[in-house]
Amino acid sequence: MSGSVGMRLDGLKARRVLGGLSIVELAQKSNLSELQIKELEDGGNCMPHEAQRIMDALAPPTTFIANTLQSPTHCLLTGAPFLTGDTVTISGATGGISLPDINGTWVVTYLGAGSYSIPVDANGGTAYDPGATVRLDGATVGLSRL
Questions:
Q1: pTM for the whole thing?
Q2: For the structural domain made of 62-140, what CATH number should be given?
């Protein structure tokens, strides 16, 4: 895991604590060792596939259900895994007419009950079709490539 090739997760500890996970819980959810998680939190590095497993353990990928037609738009997601201030990537969103594309990377605000706000002006458009994938983005955990 250590070495000169891989990824750093400089914000991992802060996001883990905000999410209410212990090192043991994160290690179990990501299928990594407790020692690996501790090393990463202390500035170590990991391979890209390990970084993705950690991000998916912190907030499992979820599905976009619907959005409101307001500014900012409110999105309903299954599972509600994200926290206010998390950066997420939305991919596969289709069907919105006269709206900016919501596919891309956004900072979310948690509104409760699986609802989030993203900074998109949806006034006057039509809703997006359900089924897009929403995944925690590396910016949330300070992901950087070495």
A1: 0.86
A2: 2.40.30.180
